[in-house]
Specification:
The complex is a heterodimer of chains A (109) and B (291). With 109 residues, chain A is mostly beta strands. In chain A, 0% of the residues lie in helices and 52% in strands. The chains are: A mainly beta (109), B mainly alpha (291).
Chain lengths: 109, 291
């Protein structure tokens, strides 16, 4: 179980139709690769965020598989054009079964 | 022949451009054509008239270290989302509300909201406490931990301490540095000043040799700043992590090939007071981003 996991998202409050909008996301997470050993030589079990999804009004915008080589606090930034106002839903899936979510609204005119 | 000729022309243009760029870079220290606006709303002055006690040794204007950094580094500090220190600030804010120690108390149990109770605290640090000792922010944090929370004190440069001082420092962001240097603080300030101008190490260098005589010049693959401390604790790209003020002091003294003082020592707290006083009037930038 990873401690202090906290998603952070930056979505502009408003945009115009067909404007290219930059979405920034970051989740604080140790992203333990499963390749390292502790002092006694035992493998430190893998604990990473293995999937990240972004949905806009229920439509999938981005669905990414994250691998163990991705470093601590994965940062994902992407650009979108939005046809209408609505809610962005971001979901992070942890190896330990935890699911972290964040929802942000954007006004599109 | 034609391709060769155009290649030659292009090379010449590139060479001229590179020379122009070099000339501009050399004269652009501190950077004069950029403004520090955080999250597109909070404007922080990065220069201000030099405090009187300096007697003009830094000229008429003092500059934040932000003005000596690269474009990309300056941009990182303009957006709290891009500023990596905010992960540590978040951890510090979480610790503020977490009860600890035998007394099972959190910072919030006494101080309530960090936004109200800690506003302005960082801008006036270090200061003389009720017993007449010069204390830094770290001393106050550990005093609370030991006497009120009955918890183990944090190491001066521990991650937990830097998380907390960053969270507390953030509450003063934008407020001018205003430390007391007269009255009961005067003896400490005098000692700090003496230390600032004392040469240390095999290289026999004082703080002033770099940060007063040579700010703006290029050394160790970096541009020397005036050594202002209004952004600590800050994110240092070289260390990929948070760096406290005394950590930086240790680094500077070590670079003179000298035996350094300990973080949190009397010497470094006096130096902290004097160095802070050289930046009086500059707004607190905590948590800043530097190289």
């Amino acid at each position: 179980m990873a401690d202090n996991v906290k998603p952070r998202v930056r979505v502009p409050k408003s945009a115009s139709v067909d404007e290219v909008v930059v979405i920034k996301t970051l989740i604080s997470h140790p992203m333990e690769s499963g390749q390292r050993k502790d002092r006694d030589g035992n493998t430190i079990p893998r604990s990473i965020i293995n999937r990240f999804t972004a949905e806009f009004n229920g439509t999938s915008v981005l669905d990414a598989t994250l691998e163990p080589a991705i470093s601590t606090n994965p940062y994902i930034e992407f650009s979108v054009k939005l046809p209408e106002s609505g809610d962005f839903k971001f979901t992070w899936y942890d190896d330990d079964g935890s699911v972290y979510e964040d929802v942000q609204s954007i006004e599109v005119a | 022949m034609k391709p060769y000729r155009s290649l030659g022309a292009a090379t010449t243009v590139a060479a001229v451009a590179a020379m122009t760029l070099a000339a501009v870079t050399a004269s652009a220290d501190p950077v004069m054509d950029d403004e520090l606006v955080i999250n597109e709303e909070l404007e922080l002055m990065t220069d201000t008239p030099a405090p009187e006690h300096l007697g003009g040794v830094l000229g008429e204007t003092i500059y934040s270290g932000w003005r000596f950094r690269d474009t990309e580094t300056r941009a990182m500090q303009k957006d709290d989302f891009d500023n990596p220190m905010f992960l540590f600030v978040d951890a510090g804010l979480a610790a503020w509300d977490t009860p600890e120690g035998a007394a099972n108390q959190s910072c919030a149990d006494c101080h309530n909201s960090i936004e109200d109770s800690m506003k302005g605290v960082r801008a006036a640090m270090p200061r003389v406490n009720a017993d007449g000792e010069l204390w830094s922010l770290e001393n106050y944090v550990n005093d609370c931990r030991e006497t009120r929370m009955e918890a183990e004190p944090w190491g001066w440069n521990s991650q937990e301490m830097k998380n907390m001082t960053a969270a507390i420092g953030l509450q003063s962001r934008g407020m001018p540095v205003e430390v007391q240097i007269d009255g009961e603080a005067a003896p400490f300030w005098e000692k700090g000043k003496e230390m600032y101008y004392t040469r240390f190490g095999q290289l026999e260098m004082s703080c002033a040799n770099c940060h007063e005589d040579n700010f703006g010049n290029y050394i160790r693959s970096d541009h020397l700043s005036q050594g202002q401390v209004n952004g600590f604790p800050l994110y240092r790209l070289k260390d990929q992590g948070a760096v406290s003020m005394h950590q930086r002091f240790v680094g500077c003294v070590r670079d003179t090939r000298g035996e350094t003082f300990a973080p949190g020592s009397q010497e470094f707290r006096e130096l902290e007071l004097y160095v802070a006083s050289r930046g009086m009037g500059l707004p607190v930038e905590t948590p800043a981003v530097r190289h």
